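Case study.
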Amino acid sequence: MSQSLAVGDPVVRPAAAHERVAAALDPRRALQLALGALWLLDGMLQFQPSMFGRGFPQMLAGSAQGNPAVVARPITWSAGIIGHHVVALNALFAAIQLLLGLGIAWRPAVKFALAGSVAWSLAVWWLGEGLGGVLAGTASPVNGAPGAVLLYALLAVLLWPADRLPAARHPADRHPADRHPAARLPAARHPAARAPAAPFTAARAVGRPVAQASWLVVWLGLAALELLPASRAIGRTIADTTPGEPAWLTGIDAHLASALTRHGLLAAVALAVVLVVVATGTFLPCRPARAIIVLAVALAAALWLAQGLGGILTGSATDPDTGPLLALLALAFWPLAPSPGRT
Amino acid sequence: MGAPIWLTASFAALMLTVATYCAGRLAVARRWQRPTELDTDAGHVLMGLAMAGLLVSRLRLLPAAAWEPIFAAGAAWFAWQLLRSRRRTAAASWRCLHPAPHLVECAAMLYMFFAATPLTARAAVTGMTALPPSRFSVLALLMALFMVGYVVRVADRLPPRTPTPTPAMAPAPAPTPAMAPAPAPTPAMAPAPALTAAPANRALAFAVSSASPAPTPTSAPSDALTSLDTPATPETSAPAGYAPTAARPQLAPRCAALCKIAMGLTMAYMLVLML
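After joint prediction, the assembly is written out as follows.
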């Protein structure tokens, strides 16, 4: 290929400006894109060969065990229908997840896709995950409770593209177009100028109290689940995640499981304490809050490792489990800017 | 249990479509004298053909031993372009602006041919419907995650509609009727001369947009995304006042972006099959 193909004068493109805009990507949009990427990954995982076999409806039916009849009956019913049309329905489920991911990534469709993802997530949480085993008494943060799809729904709400509170942005982070004089509104006329800035991205759409409440419910809920009798056998739970995984991951999980088997109760209490500490994070001043968010991300990574990376390397996972979602949720609560007098 | 044949065949058909379209872009770019990312389009032609052969064995044109040096050369080319881009030199229109994703694409192709040798041997008989797991599944996972991230990034910068060309951004005068700007696919576009090119060329020119500044408020999804940044395509991220009047409009950038999305999704699918 020669340059003559390109015809005449080479078009010099504004790469530098482009890079600046990319670097200044709105934090909420970045988190939305991460959520979209996770939906795309889910869709790809749903296309795995094992999902087109009998194992998929059996896995769904298995989530009914231990649940009250009112919860279990619809699960069994839907698993039966899926079992009769597993190829077509699994392809449909995968396509829906792909479309949700692409819709979130494509700006004109973001609201529709986020709303759809909430509805889809709640349906899957019930019919596919048996409410995460919360009512069955088998839920544990280590085995993926309360269910990754519930976190998808929560993130979709928190990252909704509306502004109850405006974003706190440093002047240097503004979009180049915003800096153009013609694009500016007088400060007094700008509706966002009179409202206090959102302390973190998750508060922009729903407000600070609701966002903090959701954070508290998630992490305190995880702590409570960790103290359930079924969750105290952390070592056994970790050991159960290993079949089908690569040798290196099996080795890590086996070492972790053997180390925790003798001290199951102590490990459960310690993990619950850490989860409670994380739950307080959004109520703290900026710097301690950032430290807590880092702790939350690290905890999410540790949980993901204990979950065997959600079984994603086994060829039979339908999602990457709660680890990446908890990390994404934590990043949505990253303090954007220190509040006056609170540093 | 393998993936359904119709599924792999659908992905293979998608790849052949992308390869054919990108070959058409190369031809049209030469005929219409319109800038396009030649290295990207050529890479997509080759990748589309190779991936179709991996997905459906009957579509295999060349053996793995022939594809490997091709994609090794492609990886070297994009690595060189990546090094050049670090020097912040202005990119010519015929080279891709972001070589890193294409470097990973070439690496993924090499991975699929090299690391999964049993895969290719088996695919010769069965196609890609029943694959043994790779010993390097983490590498496949990382590349699949990269491809998924690349897809959402491209989709994020996909303009919602073709921006209305302003007089300052109007394409250069067309020397022949076939080089006239494409008619607008949306009502927002100003009327344009009727397209006299062949239907295939009309499809190629469907989404032509210029090296224009950020979309006008009427073209931005302001109702849904009031707080979002302006879509940051290379074409839309030019600072205010950037008006290369001598620049020719890029050839169908939205269709090129759709090709990248299709290529990224299919590659991610193939990599996930190898987990």
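Observations recorded in class. Chain A has a mean pLDDT of 81. Chain A is about 60% helix and 0% strand. We will return to this complex in the next lecture.
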